[in-house]
């Protein structure tokens, strides 16, 4: 076998590890507690995770359909493997949330392939928010033609499921490279009105593409006006904020608000400030599993409390 073939074989092996550790997160509701479970464990009928409760929802992020560079030349394959894991679960989640960058360049063909792949999910309810790669044309014509109905083509919307109030927000419509995301006055006013009259004991799940707190401003890893949104949410006893964009787990707990960014199903990115900037990160196959792991978040109703724990695969 040539050195080039050996590299490709190692890369394929690494992608299998990436798929195992970075596929997505299943959120299980058990006795009022919302707990994320690693997708591969949830699909194992013999695991305690699979038997721990009824899956509430699945989070997938940053699939980047259309990307074909060295960091992962088969992003469709890793998304397909994600779907296979979900379909293998003994009890399916009630809904799926995709936190953006479904595609890489907002092309119709990329959205078509993504839609074709995600139609293979044995879950009928899909909720999405756009990432900046989904709206590279500016108005996001291709994205909204497929996913705009729930939000009346605004991108932000809310819904309720099993006593949990879900809020999808859009912070990428005026994206500039290495610039912070933004919600804008109209969306913030909508959010304030959406939350009025809701009991403070209602568990809240907010999902948006870019981080809703500033992780690393020089790379634009944050949302400039997120503080205003958080001021509306702080009265609630349990708030979980789920994001993507940075392709790695970073978490923070501030009062009753738990912030968490997800892994990508496509490729990793450098940690904040490590290198010249964000972008696809190619790593040796033996290092990749060390960059992946398991995240545990619990939201208990009595008393309302959020906790988060991360462990690596090796």
Number of separate helices: 7
Total number of β-strand segments? 13
Low-confidence stretches: 1-21, 288-302, 304-314
- Provide the CATH superfamily: Metallo-dependent phosphatases
Fraction of residues in β-strands: 15-25%
CATH class: Alpha Beta
Order of helices and strands: HEEHEHEHEHEEHEHEEEEE
Topology:
Layout: H1 3-22, E1 25-30, E2 33-38, H2 39-42, E3 54-60, H3 75-87, E4 95-98, H4 108-118, E5 125-128, H5 141-147, E6 157-161, E7 164-168, H6 185-195, E8 204-207, H7 226-233, E9 239-243, E10 251-254, E11 257-261, E12 293-301, E13 304-312
Parallel strand pairs: 3-4, 4-5, 7-8, 8-9, 9-11
Antiparallel strand pairs: 1-2, 1-3, 6-7, 10-11, 12-13
How does this structure look, described?
It contains 7 helices and 13 strands. It is an alpha/beta fold and 314 residues long. The chain has one domain: Metallo-dependent phosphatases (Purple Acid Phosphatase, chain A, domain 2). The strands form 3 sheets. Strands 6-7-8-9-11-10 form a 6-stranded mixed sheet, with no helix packed on it. Strands 2-1-3-4-5 form a 5-stranded mixed sheet. Strands 12-13 form a two-stranded antiparallel ribbon. The two termini are 28 Å apart.
The gist of it:
This protein has 314 residues and is an alpha/beta fold. It has seven helices and 13 strands. It has helices at residues 3-22, 39-42, 75-87, 108-118, 141-147, 185-195, 226-233, and strands at residues 25-30, 33-38, 54-60, 95-98, 125-128, 157-161, 164-168, 204-207, 239-243, 251-254, 257-261, 293-301, 304-312.
């Amino acid at each position: 076998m040539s050195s080039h073939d050996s590299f490709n074989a190692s890369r394929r092996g690494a992608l299998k590890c990436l798929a195992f550790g970075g596929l997505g997160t299943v959120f299980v509701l058990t006795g009022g507690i919302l707990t994320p479970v690693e997708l591969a464990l949830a699909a194992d009928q013999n695991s305690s995770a699979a038997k721990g409760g009824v899956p509430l929802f699945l989070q997938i992020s940053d699939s980047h359909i259309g990307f074909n560079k060295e960091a992962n030349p088969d992003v469709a394959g890793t998304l397909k493997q994600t779907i296979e894991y979900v379909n293998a679960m003994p009890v399916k989640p009630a809904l799926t949330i995709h936190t953006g960058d479904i595609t890489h360049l907002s092309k119709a063909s990329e959205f078509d392939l993504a839609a074709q792949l995600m139609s293979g999910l044995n879950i009928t309810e899909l909720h999405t928010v756009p990432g900046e790669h989904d709206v590279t044309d500016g108005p996001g014509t291709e994205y909204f033609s497929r996913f705009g109905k729930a939000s009346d083509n605004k991108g932000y919307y809310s819904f309720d499921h099993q006593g949990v109030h879900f809020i999808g927000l859009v912070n990428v419509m005026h994206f500039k490279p290495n610039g912070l995301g933004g919600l804008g006055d109209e969306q913030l006013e909508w959010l304030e009105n959406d939350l009025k009259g809701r009991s403070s004991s209602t568990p809240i799940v907010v999902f948006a593409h870019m981080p809703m707190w500033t992780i690393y401003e020089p790379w634009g890893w944050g949302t400039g006006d997120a503080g205003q949104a958080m001021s509306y949410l702080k009265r609630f006893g349990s708030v979980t904020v789920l994001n993507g964009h940075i392709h790695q787990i970073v978490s923070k707990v501030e009062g009753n608000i738990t912030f968490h960014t997800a892994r990508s199903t496509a490729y990793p990115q450098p940690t904040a400030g490590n290198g010249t900037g964000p972008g696809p990160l190619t790593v040796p196959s033996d290092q990749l599993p060390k960059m992946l792991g398991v995240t545990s978040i619990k939201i208990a109703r009595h008393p309302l409390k959020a906790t988060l724990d991360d462990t690596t695969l090796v």
